[in-house]
Amino acid sequence: MSKDKLTKNDHFRAMLITANERGFTPECVAFDGWYSSLENLKLIRSLGWRWLTRLKINRQVNLERQGSKAVGETAIEAGGTVVHLKGYGLIRVFRIVSKDGDTEHWATDDLAMDELTRLKLAERTWAIENYHRGLKQCCGVERCQARSGRAQRNHIGMAIRAFLRLERHFYATGVSWYEAKAKIIRGAIRAYLVNPLYVLS
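Request: output the structure for the sequence above.
Response:
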């Protein structure tokens, strides 16, 4: 829970409502399974938008009125299966098994969605997650030590600007964010060692 007493889910819903008020009409709202609560799913439906997310393996679904059971124990066809999500209604679930045996369950309220469309949207969500990872690990967006709202917004803005520089450099040269950051740090350390400001007496 953040200092404003709002949870991540509260912020998620506020962001959706703001996007709707600003006239956004997304093709699909794709998000991490952390935000897949019934309250969030129902809000997206009330806004008239489609959604795509991942479900935890123990999420309760009902296939053809056979009774509720965990999605991980439910028979899911390769192209997706329509099931009833407890407390929500009909959804389509896809089971993805990776080469190392890990299993993911993707779900959508678009009952006509096929695997190719799901894959296209899932790749977009991965690109967003990758952006967040770079913003945190390479640009320190979470490391602001200021207390005022203005200072925090300035820090976030500068972190995003730094990330855009790293991303542009990557597209121009093929040098990854991590290597570009390491080169900056190595250069700064070398320069400091040549002319250190602080030395032990």
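The mean pLDDT is 91.
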